[in-house]
Amino acid sequence: MIGRRFLRALRALYTVKFAESSAYRAQSALWMLGGLFPLIMWAIWRGIGTDPSYSQRDFALYYLFIFVARQFTPCWAIFVMDREVRKGELSARLMRPLDPLWNLAAEHWGEMSVRIPPVVLLFVLFLFISGYGADVPLRQMPLFLLGLAVGWWLNFSLHYCMAMLVFWTQSVTHFDSLMYRLFGILGGIFTPLEFFPPALAVVLHYLPFPYVMYFPAQLALGRLGPAATLEGFAIALGWIAIFTMLHRILWRLGLRKFAAVGA
Amino acid sequence: MRSNSAADKDRVAISLAHASKVYRVALKRPGLTGAIRGLFRRSYRDVQAVKDISFSIEAGEIVGFLGPNGAGKTTTLKMLSGLLYPSGGELCVLGHVPHRREREFLTQVTLVMGQKQQLSWDLAPMDSFLVNKAIYDIPEHVFSKRLDRLVDMLALTPVLDKPVRQLSLGERMKCELTLALLHEPRVLFLDEPTIGLDLNAQLAVRGFIADYNRLTGATIILTSHYMADVEALARRVIVIDHGQLRFDGSLAVLVEKHGPQKKLRIVLGEEVPTWVAQLAEYVGQDGREVTFAAERQRITALAARLLAELPVIDISIDDPPMEEVMGKLFAGAS
Questions:
Q1: How many whole angstroms separate alpha carbon B211 and alpha carbon B205?
Q2: Measured between alpha carbons, how far is residue A23 from residues A16, A27, A29, A79, B150 in Å?
Q3: Which of B83, B76, B129 is CA-nearest to residue A92?
Q4: Do A97 and B83 touch (CB under 8 A)?
Q5: Across the interface, which of B23, B26, B118 has its CB nearest the CB of A92?
Q6: How far apart are CA A108 and CA A102, in angstroms?
Q7: Strand partners, B12
Q8: What are the backbone angles phi and psi of residue B201, rounded to the nearest 5°?
Q9: What's CA A182's distance to the chain center, in Å?
């Protein structure tokens, strides 16, 4: 009963958040333009040349899937919590018998849904321009989509943990800048992780950063065997469990500090 | 058979015992030097917003919660609604400890803040209503019935499908109330629900709150800077100032205790004789209308004398305005 009630609440929230995101199509388009960075990286690599482990085709498809992964693993939880706690807007959410986390999650799902048509259009356009349309491994798409879902949840959990610090620091937006840079470098947006020094690549393998965009892109390209695929999912889910436990603890402690100012 | 204390417990909807709240506020010195010092050494100050407050409210009561700005009213409401952890004391609302924020508690209370909104700004109010229907798990037929009643009471039909950003302040407030009451809470915390509204909207909201209380038996705590709200709705008032309880009782007793002077107004059928202005109780006059102020005990005798000696064509005796009573109360306390 509780499960069904919870799902009904999520569906209603998603519907409203989708409608809200649709009302701000221009803003969504601007967000998407910011996400074109991987395609610029592809253009740069195209000029540099090839590598034994990455052909021109590999680079093109890698950055294409990184672009798609970036569009569907966004997180602005830090910005929202920063605003809602500082301005007291969280109070209204706290009065409802549903954890505010779900409101925020639904907001992301709504925005991502609005992005589906333009991302598909850009995806097809890119394949047409690059000439690699026939090289897309369609069989890998279910795993890629699963990787995206896990990647988004991992990214959301990590950002939500950071967002909880607002109860102590009053402002956390600088953490978002930090996360952006870390994911840019360690998450595979700038360059595939195979080009990192081996020692760093080993460490990165056990950190959460590669499992948001790099890992789904690797799944899409079919570069991982069954064992590496399972290991990747296990590491990602492990981090999700850790971050979820952490933000639950921080949430409980943080609410004691919440001053509900301004509202 | 149930004991009397158990029955009493059932009747009490809200209780606070020695509740207090201390905020820790970071101090910032002005200027560049202050900012640099703040980087290395932060200093804090404890602000006691609520000090050792105790009261209880029975189920179905409407209580006016009064006090000047910064008195601790909103902090108390936030503690009672579970938004704030109290620094001390015990709070209980409908048998629940508010800050635990259990689902059963949250589905039975609501907090309406006149200056904050829960409605989705870009969507029609109906969208927000449907979200609350799902979150509070309100069955379809119950939702329709409640919504119809609320829409009818607040005359909301024309605005249900308009984006919230296009609504007037009064319309928005009515929609906020509807949203906050769809789950039919048993306890309402209303913080300045009529702030900024024009007179018609104030009257509509006031009438609605009274009707809601009558129809559902809900317990209501109301803060308002408009004394007319309190006078129209609350028989009992709780007054706090500087975080401390100053008064808890009926409006009539508050007025009697802190506004002992009544106002006597007469209108004469001819010019006002000069001796009237010499009376100790004389306050002023406007043409043939004269105003006096005196203690309750003396006002009747004065009225009788004036009626006997002057051609009075109209007379009224009124309590002093609530604003005046409150002003005296707070002036006496400070």
A1: 10
A2: 11, 9, 12, 20, 28
A3: B83
A4: no
A5: B118
A6: 10
A7: B58
A8: -65, -40
A9: 13
A243 to chain B, closest Cα gap in Å: 23
Q: Taking a C-beta distance cutoff of 8 angstroms, is the pair A93, A103 a contact?
A: yes
- Return mean pLDDT, chain B: 87
**Distance of residue A261 Cα from the nearest chain B Cα, in angstroms:** 9
- Give the number of other CB atoms < 10 A from CB of residue A133: 11
Whether B9 shows a pLDDT value over 60: the answer reads no
Candidates A13, A23, A259; nearest CB to B23:
A259
Please tell me which residue of chain A has the smallest CA distance to B125.
A16
Structure tokens belonging to residue A186: 């360690």
Q: How far is CA A190 from the centre of its chain?
A: 16
Following DSSP, what letter does each residue of B16-83 receive, concatenated?
A: EEEEEEEEEEEE--SHHHHHHHHHH--EEEEEEEEEEEEEEEETT-EEEEE-STTSSHHHHHHHHTTS
Do residue A5 and residue B81 have CB atoms under 8 angstroms apart? no
Chain A interface test: which of B76, B110, B131 (most A C-beta within 10 Å): B131
Interface test with A, best of B107, B117, B137 (most A CBs within 10 A): B137
Only one residue has tokens 């002992």, namely: B260
Give backbone dihedrals phi and psi of B290, rounded to 5 degrees, phi first. -120, 140
Residues 6+ apart with CB under 8 A from B332: B258
For B52, phi then psi, to 5°, come to 50, 55
- Tell me the two tokens of residue A6: 């919870």
Q: Which of B26, B109, B122 sits opposite A23 (nearest CB)?
A: B122
Q: Is the pLDDT of residue B280 over 80?
A: yes
Asked if residue B299 has pLDDT above 90, the reply is no
Kindly provide the residue ranges of all beta strands, DSSP E only, lying in chain B, ordered along the sequence: 12-27, 43-58, 62-66, 88-93, 109-113, 187-191, 219-223, 236-241, 244-250, 261-268, 282-286, 289-295, 312-318
Query: Distance between CA atoms of A103 and A76, rounded to whole angstroms?
Result: 13
Q: pLDDT tens digit string along A100-156?
A: 999 999 999 999 999 898 889 888 888 888 888 778 888 999 999 999 999 999 999
pTM: 0.83
Which of B46, B79, B80, B83 to mutate to probe the A interface, most A CBs <10 Å?
B83
